[in-house]
User: Fold this.
Amino acid sequence: MTANIWIAAECRKGSISEATFEVLALGRELADALGVQLEAVLLGHGERESAAALGKADRVLYVDHPSLADAAGEQASRAWAALWEQRGPAIVLAPITNLSWDLLGLLPGRLGVPLVNLCREVTATAGALETRSILYGGKMAVAVSVGSGPVVIAVLPGIRSAEAGRSEAPAVVEEVALDLAADSGIRLQGYDEPEAGDVDITQLEALVAVGRGISSEANIEVAEDLAAALGGAVCGSRPIIDQGWLPLVRQVGKSGVTVKPRLYVAAGVSGAPEHVEGMKDSELIIAVNTDAGAPIFSVAHFGVVDDATDVLEALAEAVKARKG
Amino acid sequence: MKILVLMKMVPDIVEELEVAADGRSLDREFLRLIVNERDEYALEQALLLKDRLQATVTVVAPEAPEIDDVLYTALAKGADRVIRVSGIDPAAGTRATALALAATLPRIAGVLPADLVLGGCQAIDDLDGFMSPLLAQALGLPYLGLVSRVTVEPGGTSVLISKEYAGGVMGRFQVALPALLGIQGCEKPPRYVPISKVRAATAAGTIEQVAAPTGPTPAALEVSAMAKPEAAGHAEMLEGSARDVANKLVEILAARGLL
Assistant:
């Protein structure tokens, strides 16, 4: 018999993450197709009320333990292994987010099952699962036959709408007691929130995003000039923040923020999945890149194959001329 | 303090990637490789620690085209020992590579135990696992990933780290050593080293070579097909000089009330 499907639910500051609902929506489809139960696994401390939002699952397996409050991957993966012993095996679906990152890395080893990473689609056909992953920064798609055995499937954000994973009906929550050893030698001391004072890029109608293709820090000014002409601000992809050319609060995508402006100009941004997840729902996307095969062109509405700085410069001039 | 850094090569995605004749893997014949970007940050983090306290930095990497350049560059930047591990199939996958490295490390004199092991927290070819947590488990070390800053606490038995959450939030953790950290970023970009110094390291330095033990490789994922992704949509491409394109874009923006 095919194993049940388990969802790795995420909860921070008392609320279930959007990514969890997306994965729940996918899990519901797959569980129905396979004729198995859908169970959401939530680990935490004092989060039983949060678990009620997971009604799309047939059942929530909730584990409450002081060591699981804001647990790092080590503690969480040990709890998963203990739960697995009691209630497994399962087909595990987990969102690829910073919150679940360490758990994804450790879970396959703890459970002794394979991992299929970077999945942007999972389908069930004749009782077996097949996944489609995106590798090499979005440049290759890989199909993997997973079968029906226990596995951890790591799912990219946006695989389904979060809305489809919500339910009016409160979840059936079953609290599972586990014997958890306490110390992994990893202790959370606190969180540092981003410094206030900078612009909030999630609130702007126009964003000019710069990526590796911008080539040098001096060219950020060109992007700023265009952003000012459009009444927006400059943001960036990971490499720009790594270089220290823009602060972390201006990062779009994983580790950064998700934005949905009316206009998103992606300049020299290749379109790696971890960036695309943060901007794909922008109303109008214009991409400029020297690489005609850059994945950004599959999410953009209009594309230009050219040097990003040259086009930004020309566009800033043209916008200013039009505005008078 | 003994610090071990793990590095590996990945396909350079600035180049065009091609699918091999089997339709299920990457064509490696003309594949250009570069060092995994996150591993460069792991090395930088190790060197920053070495700058600040008594530490030795050893770099271990699976053999691959261009890996010698990476290892000599590491020496030029300040690594004390660099080691190339042969006998790991580059197409074997992340999990098999991690397990092979973990089986090799205990056979290299003076490398283990290390106080701190650093690796990149992700790579663009991580289909079947993440290198750093797999290695941590195989070596019996606690693991924390998405780390972007490491400070050694007085006494040298623990580190304070910053870990990235979404939206620019950072978690502060204390981690008892020994431990393996998956590095995402650093307080500064990887240091630049002039080519003359790399040449000097190539002339004077030594790359140690160690063979991975032979043994059964773990079962790989059953990849049924690899292909360039079919895009759900594609941008309407605008052509012409930068100025022509800019003028067309202004019309598009104006038509949508964005100006």
